[in-house]
Amino acid sequence: xxxxxxxxxxxxxxxxxMKDINVVKALKKAKAEGTGALDHVSKDNLIEKLQDWAxxxxxxxxxxxxxxxxxxxxxxxxxxxKAMHTMMINKPGTxxxxxxQRSSTLGYTCTNDGWGR
Length: 117
Fold this sequence. Notes:
117 residues, alpha+beta, 3-stranded antiparallel β-sheet, two-stranded antiparallel ribbon, 5 strands, 15% strand, phytanoyl-CoA dioxygenase activity, PhyH
């Protein structure tokens, strides 16, 4: 489903589709220089995050998966859960070789004390 959304084959007007700015900049630079260095990058590698996809009937099936529900009940103590915010993060490994670290992991780590470099 992610690929269908990335390629514009499915209506995504009810969700936020965020591109990875570092990939976009690298593609623009490669195009301007005429190197074609990143010609292999597909549209689904441009997308870094999908947010607010709870209204997408296919993606929301993953939230309702029977293997997920017991953990959800353990966390919130009830079967009456509602989706408030949904996010999918795309991390294509093949781009890391060509571009270094992805923007979402650029030198930041998350600990119990919060975010730091």
